[in-house]
From TrEMBL:
The gene is FUCA2. It holds the Pfam family Alpha_L_fucos. The record marks 299 as: May be important for catalysis. Its EC number is 3.2.1.51. Alpha-L-fucosidase is responsible for hydrolyzing the alpha-1,6-linked fucose joined to the reducing-end N-acetylglucosamine of the carbohydrate moieties of glycoproteins. This is Alpha-L-fucosidase. It comes from Trichechus manatus latirostris (Florida manatee). GO terms for molecular function: alpha-L-fucosidase activity. Residues 382-469 form the Alpha-L-fucosidase C-terminal domain. It catalyses: a neolactoside IV(2)-alpha-Fuc-nLc4Cer(d18:0) + H2O = a neolactoside nLc4Cer(d18:0) + L-fucose; an alpha-L-fucoside + H2O = L-fucose + an alcohol; a neolactoside IV(2)-alpha-Fuc-nLc4Cer(d18:1(4E)) + H2O = a neolactoside nLc4Cer(d18:1(4E)) + L-fucose. The lineage of its organism: Eukaryota, Metazoa, Chordata, Craniata, Vertebrata. Belongs to the glycosyl hydrolase 29 family.
Length: 472
């Protein structure tokens, strides 16, 4: 909802004026570069656009879910919907026991203070995680925008709560202090926005909401903040024709200031997911376990239950670093990117449990990143003989990486997939200086003798990588 109270909504006359002035409010078309590919507003044309190379090379990103839902910090970022629309008993009980009877969701707005939000600290932590891109939620289904949108009816972070342009502060910090690509999430629909609800009641024959709010906000985001990832979500059951998704994407790819570098996902209307867009997400926490022909992303949460911050989470509700490393390795071996989510608190603090996981992932990547960044899928994603062994490759360097998640008790690792080339194959353990001895098996496979190490000598703690040179 753009504003949680009806008093925030524009009157009929104001809405009519907005609709008339919309062509003047939208950005003027920019001239595409000479000889540039021109994309038509059809899925056939848009889906043919090559994915900018940086995205496949990056492999690992951080998702940040932060908004007014971080204030109650209970259950889920879908708090408003579960409390008022679904009236789930645990949410109703929480509100009854902690807030006065007349308390409304809009009353959480002033409590979303962000008083300890420090964009530079966030940027430094994201850099330390080893991530190569990040995606910030600029507006979730509650409608609260994290920048001072002209179309948000004052339900935004500049007019309410923080009284700051969160998107701009983080953009500046990310670009000045890190090498991460800057990305933005945007929910197309809003649960309780009266314009969207009226459009929905008309079976989406009316298009008041996308014309007066959603599309202008998207143009604002792109032109003001130049995101290199535009992560759409939340179609509300409406088709892409209602959202004019193909028209917007044609502008994004042809004329926008990020037309050469921006990547988009597949959530642009009912029926588009896992079918159209720059890369596929298919579903939350999507991990097929095998190689897919189309570029995809596994968006998942460190908190097993919620994308937003939860005060009621216990330690067992968080994935361990071993589990997260496994997610990353499996995802990259199958051709995907991992987008790992954290949920800051209402005051802008990243909880110690999230900070620890981010720094642990960065420590692991500092040793094993060679087997992750800039790699490709190999002919086999995982080993068929030894469990928990996953493969990536750098063909130009004639390298295959075997990432194993369990150190064998007998000190020998059997790899059933690679075939050695006699007097040519070399095996190294990343983070360990000496080449390793190996024995060839027929018709395929090698046995690698691992070094005997003390705990302090292990190059890392949660998974290890063998670099195999000249194997087929």
């Amino acid at each position: 909802m753009a504003g949680p109270a009806d008093t925030r909504c524009p009157g009929t006359a104001r809405l009519a004026l907005q609709l008339l002035l919309l062509p003047l409010l939208l950005p003027p078309p920019a001239r595409p570069a000479a000889g540039a590919q021109r994309y038509e507003p059809t899925w056939e044309s848009l889906d043919a656009r090559p994915l900018p190379a940086w995205f496949d090379q990056a492999k690992f990103g951080i998702f940040i879910h932060w908004g007014v839902y971080s204030v109650p910090g209970f259950g889920s970022e879908w708090f408003w919907w579960y409390w008022q629309e679904k009236q789930i008993p645990e949410y109703v009980k929480f509100m009854k026991h902690n807030y006065p009877p007349d308390f409304k969701y809009e009353d959480f707005g002033p409590q979303f203070t962000a008083q300890f939000f420090n964009a530079s600290q966030w940027a430094d932590l994201l850099q330390a995680s080893g991530a190569k891109y990040m995606v910030l939620t600029t507006k979730h289904h509650e409608g609260f925008t994290m920048w001072g949108s002209k179309y948000s009816w004052n339900w935004n972070a500049v007019d309410e709560g923080p009284k700051r342009d969160i998107v701009k502060e983080l953009e500046v910090a990310i670009r000045n202090r890190t090498d991460l690509h800057f990305g933005l999430y945007y929910s197309l629909f809003e649960w309780f926005n009266p314009l969207f609800l009226e459009d929905k009641f008309s079976s989406f024959h009316k298009r008041q909401f996308p014309v007066s709010k959603m599309l202008p906000e998207l143009y604002e985001l792109v032109n003001n903040y130049w995101p290199e990832v535009l992560w759409a979500d939340g179609d509300g059951g409406a088709p892409d024709s209602y959202w004019n998704s193909t028209g917007f994407l044609a502008w994004l790819y042809n004329e926008s200031p990020v037309r050469d570098t921006v990547v988009t996902n597949d959530r642009w209307g009912a029926g588009s997911i896992c079918k159209h867009g720059g890369y596929y997400t298919c579903s939350d926490r999507y991990n097929p376990g095998h190689i897919l022909p189309h570029k995809w992303e596994n968006c998942m949460t460190i908190d097993k239950v919620s994308w937003g911050y939860r005060r009621n989470a216990g330690i067992c509700d968080y994935f361990t670093i071993e589990e997260l490393v496994k997610q990353l390795v499996e995802t990259v071996s199958c051709g995907g990117n991992l987008l790992m989510n954290i949920g800051p608190t209402q005051d802008g603090t990243i909880s110690p449990i999230f900070e620890e996981r981010l720094r642990q992932m960065g420590a692991w990547l500092s040793v094993n990143g060679e087997a992750i960044y800039g790699t490709h899928t190999w002919r086999s994603a995982n080993d068929t003989v030894t469990p928990d062994v996953w493969y990536t490759t750098k063909p130009k360097e004639n390298l295959v990486y075997a990432i194993f998640l369990k150190w064998p008790t007998l000190g020998q690792l059997l790899l059933g997939q690679p075939k050695a080339i006699w007097n040519s194959t070399m095996v190294k353990l990343l983070g360990y200086g000496q080449p390793l001895k190996w024995t060839s098996l027929e018709p395929n496979g090698i046995v690698v003798k691992l070094p005997q190490l003390t705990i302090s000598q292990f190059p890392c703690k949660w998974g290890w990588t063998l670099a195999l040179t000249n194997v087929i």
